[in-house]
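Supplementary Data S3. Sequence and structure tokens for construct A.
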Amino acid sequence: MFKASSLVALCYYLITAESFQIQQPSSSSSSSIKNRREMLHQIVAAATTVTFPTATLAEPSTQQQQQQAQNIPTNKAPTSAGRRGCQTDTNPSRTVVTCTQELRKYNPDGRLSSVSATANGVSTSAVRNPSRFSPPWSYLTETSDSKVAWNSLVKAVSAVGGGVEIVELTDEYLHATVPTEFPAGLTYDDIEFVLRPDDNIVLYRSVSRTSVFVYPLTQPVSDKNSNLKRLEKIRDRLGWVEMGLAQTGSERI
């Protein structure tokens, strides 16, 4: 807050300046000057009682930034776009998003989920996202018996290493988890396989539950293609072939 001292000074300046400019005032000009002086004195008197607010813009504190981020519904936040069942942990330099409701059991149609651009991984269902799509596998190079092929797949997944654990297994569905390799120290990668015996193929999805966003990046820190490489290791062990153009992986940092 400040008083309008500059306005007061300007008014006095106008009074003084006009008096000096008129060397030989006539009676009519003297009356005009007197009236102006009285008006300016009234303005000065009013200005000295007026205060003007000053606005200041301050940077929000770290706590305020965190509160603002937490007030954004997770399903509407850019860092979790296209994902479900997410929890967000954020600070001014990075955001960590963990999503746990993207498995097949959460899909009414019984299909494998796609992979959002805000997640790391690949899926045979990500047909609308070429950078996350990988083609189905055909097991006909090994056998035409779907049961034999499925048993081989279960063994190959169990032998992939990295702390893999099969948490659900049926005659046509497998869900395994493995600690996320990169970025290290996060949660798990979810690996799912679905047998399609009528088509002699296997569908799959391997995605990291947790994504890390470092300001100002708008895409998650890369998993260095660890999900894709793990799937390739399983397929190589089986000797199966891909039914389409191979996914080459991401070149993001």
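Construct B, processed identically:
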Amino acid sequence: MYRGMSSCNTYSYGDALYWDSRYVQEAGSFDWYQRYSALRPFLRNYIPTSSRILMVGCGNAVMSEDMVNDGYEEIMNIDISLVVIDMMRKKHEHMHQLKYLQMDARDMSFFPDDSFDGVIDKGTLDSLLCGADAPISAARMLAEVCRLLKPGGIYMLITYGDPTVRMPHISRSVYNWKITLYIIPRPGFQKSTSSSTKTSYLEPVPLTENGVLPADFVLEDPDCHYIYVCRKVDETPSDLPSYPVTADRLRKVN
């Protein structure tokens, strides 16, 4: 999406009519943020190929197709746009590992509790945070994701949102998620030859007690993407840290 608040509010990213219109006008496929090849190490590490997976806001991306070609066995794809669901269902009608349903991620009551081993979100939470009633929409979606995850399951959020604007939403104790953060450069980013940083993007990034990046942490790519790996654990909510959504952070929900 777009990082700036003004750009974010220009679009109705949480509205089915916006996406229906967009998919009618735009042919072909498009992957937000990152392709599967870049995300593969994280997915393979946290979500086994035998997992039952939910792809929220699948759009017309080739992500699910690439995952099946790499051995993933069952992916349920949902999107708020019936237009794109019909397109993708027809495109992959001979790929039995992929299923498609028109559905709003804020209400996935069609599925029973503990239905999935993994939920993948590449830009859908970001879309809701650009729409009307953003904090409420985000909370509704995240509550549904948590309900649908089996104990030990993984919610993998790929987003442009840094911890100051995402942790207040995803770290609420009611979700019972243990969160690990990774930071990945945008596609095509070239590391500076003068850079002295030797840390691999495959290594998790530490967070402070307040759920933000350490003060001395340096982002090599200011337009990087953040991968939040949220594991549903069995501890009681009081055992897990929570970072409240304060008024100043609500003003930066994008």
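Residues 15 and 167 are 24 Å apart (CA to CA). The radius of gyration is 18 Å.
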